Structures are given as C-alpha cells and as structure tokens.
User: What shape does this take?
Amino acid sequence: MLLQAENLHHSFTEGETENKVLQGVCLKIIRGETTAVVGPSGCGKSTLLYLLGLLDRPKKGEIYFHGTEVAKSDDKVRTNLRNNSIGFIFQFHFLLKELTALENVSLPMRKSGLTRMDSHEKSLDILKKLGLESKSDRYANKLSGGEQQRVAIARAIANSPSLILADEPTGNLDSRNSENVFSLLQNIARDQDIGVLVVTHNPELAKNCDQIIEIQDGKNK
Ligand SMILES: Nc1ncnc2c1ncn2[C@@H]1O[C@H](COP(=O)(O)OP(=O)(O)OP(=O)(O)O)[C@@H](O)[C@H]1O
Ligand SMILES: [Mg+2]
Assistant: This one.
C-alpha cells in the first residue's frame, strides 16, 4: 500500500459560512496502478489532490504514506515527502516559459541537490523516453500543448516519485493527445511501479484505469 486516506473532511470558511467540501472520503492507492478521480465540477476533486499532495491539511481524517500518518506530521516531514516522493501534474502544466524543456524537467532535480550536468543528463534521458529528444532545447512556450503536457509529465517523474498526482492533465488537449498522455501515465505507473492518481472529466479515460473513485456530495459514491 502506497497511500491510504481515511475519512477525509475538508471545508472552506468564508465569512460566517462554512462550505463543507469533503465529508468522509476514503481511498487506497497501490504502486503500479492508475486511479481515476471523477465527479461533478465543484465536488472537491482538486481539494482532495491538494490534501493528498500535502499542500493543505484536512480538517479531519488520516493520510497514510507508506504506512505513516502524515496529515498531522510537522511541516518539515511533509515538505520532504512532497519534494522527494510526490510528482504533480496540473491542468495548465505550469512550465516556466523562459526555460527550455530540458531546464524545466531539470528543475526539481536541481532543487533536491543534483548538479546541473547530472540533472541535464537525467532529464534528457526522460525526454527521450517521452519522444521529446529533439525538443529538449526549445523554450516551453514554443512547444505544442501536447508536447508541453509531456514535458510536465517528464518533470513530474524526474525525481523518481512514488506517487504522481495529476489534476485534469488532459483538460486542454484534443482526444488523440489525451489518450496518448493517459496511456503514457499508465505505462509510467506500471513500468516504474509508481502510484498514479488522475482527476478527469472524461469517462472513457477513467474506464481504462485500474480503479475509479467517484465523489458525490463530499463522499465516495
Ligand atoms: N481556496 C478556496 N477557498 C474557498 N473555497 C474553495 C477554495 N478552493 C475550492 N473551494 C470550493 O470548494 C469546492 C470544491 O472545489 P474543487 O476545486 O476541489 O472542485 P473540483 O471538483 O476540482 O471542480 P472542477 O472539476 O471544476 O475542477 C468548490 O465549491 C469551490 O468553490
Ligand atoms: Mg478541479
């Protein structure tokens, strides 16, 4: 078991009103498997990803990472885990446009202390695997949407995470590129024994995953 969430509750307070978003979500993520998170807009999918990515703390409930409870552990432990074990892919990939594809992929490795040369070598290797070798020196804003999304995937796997959290990674791609990005994520999960959690609005893509978590009224459906 890679990740287990038990009875997660989360709410946002605006003025006097408390907007309850998650009200007891449970899930289990196993290495090598891809899990889809589905549910209507506003049901709390992104909120859930933020909690699982240790970017926010649940109001109630537990998150076990490799068996250790981390929802309540201190910031240092959580930051370490986030930087070294979790890769993020967002809908609008957030590449730095003034950096090349290679530099974007290298960034997390540089942050965790790898030298420029080592990180560039490793990045080139990953870009090759994703069919982007010839694009490695291009600035991010000179790449197509699908290429940028693949660079974002390359960046997410650069630090060899054990978990990848992807929030609608194909949200702004056409159907062919969406399928490519999805099967790429599934292959990465399988080949590298990584747990992948993907939020998607596309039922066809969700159907191909090993597990589907459907959220309704703040709970698992
Ligand atoms: N930082 C915030 N402050 C206050 N309310 C928030 C905040 N973030 C999200 N919400 C509210 O929480 C609810 C869930 O939002 P969330 O972004 O998790 O939905 P979602 O399922 O990801 O939707 P979508 O499919 O549209 O991306 C929404 O009602 C939203 O308005
Ligand atoms: Mg969302």
Residues 12, 19, 21, 39, 41-47 surround adenosine-5'-triphosphate (ligand 1) (CB under 6 Å). Strands lie at 3-14, 17-29, 34-38, 60-65, 68-69, 86-89, 163-167, 195-199, 211-216, 219-220. The helical segments are 45-52, 75-85, 101-111, 116-129, 145-157, 175-192, 203-207. The chain is about 35% helix and 25% strand.
